[in-house]
Amino acid sequence: MLKRLLAKASPILGTPVDWLGLCLLCRQPCDTDPLLCHWCRTSLRQQEHRCRLCATPLEEMWPLCGRCQRRPPPWDRLQVIGDYLPPYPWLIPRLKYGGDLLLAPLLARLLADHLTLEDPPEAIIPVPLHWWRQWRRGFNQAEQLGLCLSRLTGIPLDLRVIRRIRATPQQTQLSASQRRRNLKGAFHIAPHHYQHVALLDDVVTTGATAGQLTRLLHESGIARVEVWALCRTLPHVK
Ligand SMILES: [Zn+2]
Ligand SMILES: [Zn+2]
Questions:
Q1: pLDDT tens digits, residue range 14-35?
Q2: Which of 5, 66, 137, 141 is the most buried (most CB within 10 A)?
Q3: pTM of the entire structure?
Q4: Which residue has the higher pLDDT, 9 or 113?
Q5: What architecture is domain 51-232?
Q6: Distance from residue 67's CA to the centre of ligand 2 (Å)
Q7: Can you point out the beta strands (E) in 40-190?
């Protein structure tokens, strides 16, 4: 298994022998972490103060940006590593489309470093792929991140509550309103007893998927839904 993972990762990591014990990003020897050296791990931290709801960096220490005060998104909190800036436009597609599963623990570790967990959710729920897309891709990147994040935080992973019952066309080229239409009737929520959960996705772009799922989870009786993602791409999500 490890051999297969290393072989898959070799185009970006060099040969497995080259890679072992070296930082994934700068290839210097790693000290404490098997994937990232202390310098890269520290320098990748984006520590700006951010809006609690849309993660826009804020100059003042307000909890919310002006737009979220006027038109808040449906979730209670959005937590991300930061903006979709290098090296993330390189790392995240390598995981998602390149199948470099070794990147899942690395990215999950970076997200865990950024999470505020004073009141932790009862479960981490990755945004599901339709079974057909998951079968073709061989994995769901949000699920892979969730497995690692669950290990790092001790919060259980739930793969049962949300099911994608309709395959939807790729959303990459769609506008926010097209995305909302595209997602109608796409998910089913199974019975549960949760009050507070974290919905996990790789990147929040328009917030259409996270918004739709948050509304469905609220309707199913969950009082508080947080959205966790590696990065956000837009100046403001609706
Ligand atoms: Zn490094
Ligand atoms: Zn905001």
A1: 444 445 678 877 888 887 667 7
A2: 141
A3: 0.83
A4: 113
A5: 3-Layer(aba) Sandwich (3.40)
A6: 6
A7: 77-83, 123-126, 162-164, 187-189
